[in-house]
Each structure stands twice: as structure tokens, then as C-alpha cells.
Amino acid sequence: MSLSSRDTVADGPVIRLDAVQKSFSLPNGEVFDAVRSVSLDIAQGDVFGLIGTSGAGKSTLLRLINLLERPDAGRVLVGGRDLTQLSRSELRDMRQNIGMVFQQFNLLQNASVFDNVAFALKIHGKHSRNEIDARVRECLALVGLAEKIDTYPAQLSGGQKQRVAIARALAPRPQVLLCDEPTSALDTETTRALLQTLRDINEKIGVTIVIVTHELSVVELLCRQVAIMEHGRVVERFAVDSASDAPRLSALGRELDALVRRRERDEREAQEAQDAGAARAAEVNYV
Ligand SMILES: Nc1ncnc2c1ncn2[C@@H]1O[C@H](COP(=O)(O)OP(=O)(O)OP(=O)(O)O)[C@@H](O)[C@H]1O
Fold first, then answer.
1. In whole angstroms, what is the distance from residue 171 CA to residue 167 CA?
2. Which atom of ligand 1 is nearest to the CA of 61?
3. Rounded Cα distance, 216 and 210, in Å
4. Which ligand 1 atom lies nearest to the CA of residue 180?
5. For residue range 257-270, what is the model confidence (pLDDT) as tens digits?
6. Best of 17, 22, 59, 211 to mutate for ligand 1, by most ligand atoms within 8 A of CB?
7. pTM here?
8. Which of 15, 16, 58, 267 would be 42's cystine partner, CB 3.0–4.6 Å?
9. Nearest alpha-carbon partner for 166 in 103, 226, 217
10. 198 neighbors 163 (Cβ within 8 angstroms)
């Protein structure tokens, strides 16, 4: 069986947040509203970025999607099911449908790469040995680490560790992959390669990716849609693919547009230079 994300509800978004709220009680007795009545739809197969200044509520919002944080109010629907209404065992099953990767990889240091990736499948207890073996190999191939199957995390670079974490998250064939600052611990070149891998994975298996980042360049390189958060609210969302003349409501939105414009201009200029070079070469050959 080939690796593919699960069948989805025919229409409607794969993730729907409906007026979700989350507050935290602070040690001084005050209550802090980290997420304030956020409603957001994310389409199946999308690559969706969540950006905002530090403390804007991005990670909390991401963690509401798999109920690592339970909302104080509002509904969280994934694949059409309201997670807030599920029993503990139903939620455990549902979490197989929502993979997650973290900034610090969170691998088991004393377990091999194979065992790290197999972990969620073994815990779930519903897969045969052969099935687990095949899935682990498929997922490691998907992240370009097939040959590292018998190594241990300590023998891997940061980028490789994050790839193992992605393979682990994908092993249960989730519909959704949540990524919380997955490249923050990586250098620029490793970040680029990892983002390309995430993009390839999205294209190959159609898994919906939601990524929290504070780096605009990550959104620009990876995402199709972005939502910008300020003080616990989503202030705007838009498609990242191409520069737009639509006025942006936030400074980050304007900065992101400027980045997209610069990339489009660079690509245009590179193409023009290439065309001019080809025309000159043709002239020389002709003469
Ligand atoms: N468990 C908690 N208890 C108390 N306050 C919390 C808790 N978790 C988050 N917060 C607070 O909620 C706010 C939003 O946190 P969150 O981590 O979602 O922000 P963020 O946008 O991801 O920020 P950063 O980019 O710095 O990680 C912050 O002010 C944070 O201190």
C-alpha cells in the first residue's frame, strides 16, 4: 500500500476553528487571553502559515488544533469532527490523524531511528509488525533518510533529526501535519532543504500542513496561505503565492508582500538575463 493521507470529508475545510478562546491563569492571579475568539478555515491539502510577533498566540492556536490545549470556548473541527466533543479514546484515535513536529525535535534519544518513527504506530496497537516495518521505511524514504534507519538520534545532524520527527509524525498517515517552529533550531541552508522536503511531502501525499514560524522567509518559501496574529487575534489572512495590490492590515502582511514582490522581481530578472544570453549565443552562431 502506498503512502497517502486519509480520505477526507468531501467538501468543507479539513480544519475549522469556530470562535476558539484560550486564557491562562497567571501566578499573580490575573487571567491572560492568549487566543481571542479566532475563527479560521484551512482547506484540505493547503500549506498554511501562522505568523505574528512573539506572544501573539501562534503556538497556542496551533496546539488548540489537536487539543494539546483545550479551548475555553468555541469548536475545533478536524475532518468534520468536533474534537471538543470526543471521548478520551476517540480523541486518542483522532490524534493519529493529526501529526505534530516541534522546534526541538523531541526524539527518544535511546531509541533507534526505526523505533522513533514506529513509536506512534506501536502505541496505537492496531498495526501488524509487517505494516509498521513498511510504514517506517516509506516515511523515512519520504524525508530522504532511508539509509539512517538503524542509527540513533545522537548520530544525526539537527536537520536529520527534524526529518526523523517528520517521518514519525507522518507514520500514522495523518490528514494534518502541525509544525511548531520546525526550523528555528536549524541554519539557513538546512532550513531551505527542510522546507523543500515539506513542500514535496505536501505535493506527494496531500497532507495539510499548518506551520507556526516567526520567520517571514519560511512563509514565503513554503506557504500558500498565511494568517497573521496580533494579541491573540487573527488580523488578516491571504494567499502568499503572488504579490497582490490588496491593502494589508498589518506590518507583517506588508513585509511579506514586499518579500514576495522581491522574489518575483529576482526571478523575472534572472529569466530576462537568461533569455538575453540565449539570444546573444544564437546571434553568434548565426554570424
Ligand atoms: N501555559 C501557559 N500559562 C500561562 N501563559 C501562557 C501559557 N502558554 C502560553 N502563555 C502565554 O500566552 C501568550 C501566547 O503564547 P504563545 O506561545 O501562543 O505565543 P507565540 O505567538 O507562539 O509566541 P512565540 O513566538 O514567542 O513562541 C504568551 O504571552 C505566553 O506567555
1. 6
2. 18
3. 15
4. 22
5. 999 888 888 888 88
6. 59
7. 0.90
8. 15
9. 103
10. no
